[in-house]
Amino acid sequence: MNPLRTLALLLVLGFTSVAMAGAGEEVVIEMIEYQFRPQEVTIKPGTTVRWVNREKRQFHNIWFKEAGEEPGDYLFPEEEYERVFEESGDYPYVCQPHEDRGMTGRIIVAE
Ligand SMILES: [Cu+2]
User: Fold this and answer.
1) Average pLDDT over residues 17-40
2) pTM of the full predicted structure?
3) What's the gap in Å between 58 CA and the centre of ligand 1?
């Protein structure tokens, strides 16, 4: 096989595996009434998760506490935060100011 055809084939295979991984897909989680909705989502690796604050006045944040990360910045109404999940796993998170009110969520990344 000539080098150009080999290169073309590799590109096709590469794009196929990326597509199967879910890259470029996006899910939206709304923060409303002191809840994450949906509370739990299952996504494929490479998916973008976008959190949007839909409250009228209340701020929230996103904190992957169990992973030992720093709490996220406060998100005020209509502000949003995005994150791409590349690795399979279980990613529980909380809203730092409202964890004791049960404002928690979970991202499950699975092939
Ligand atoms: Cu909150």
Assistant:
1) 82
2) 0.79
3) 8
Distance CA 57, CA 107 (A): 26
Please check whether the domain covering 23-109 is classified as CATH 3.40.50.1950: no
Closest CA to 62 of 107, 19, 25, 22: 107
User: How is the chain split into domains, by residue range?
Assistant: 23-109
CA 25 – ligand 1 centroid, Å? 26
Instruction: Please give the distance, rounded to the nearest whole angstrom, from the Cα atom of residue 26 to the centre of ligand 1.
Output: 22
Residue with tokens 């989502």: 41
Distance, CA of 48 to CA of 25 (rounded, Å) = 6
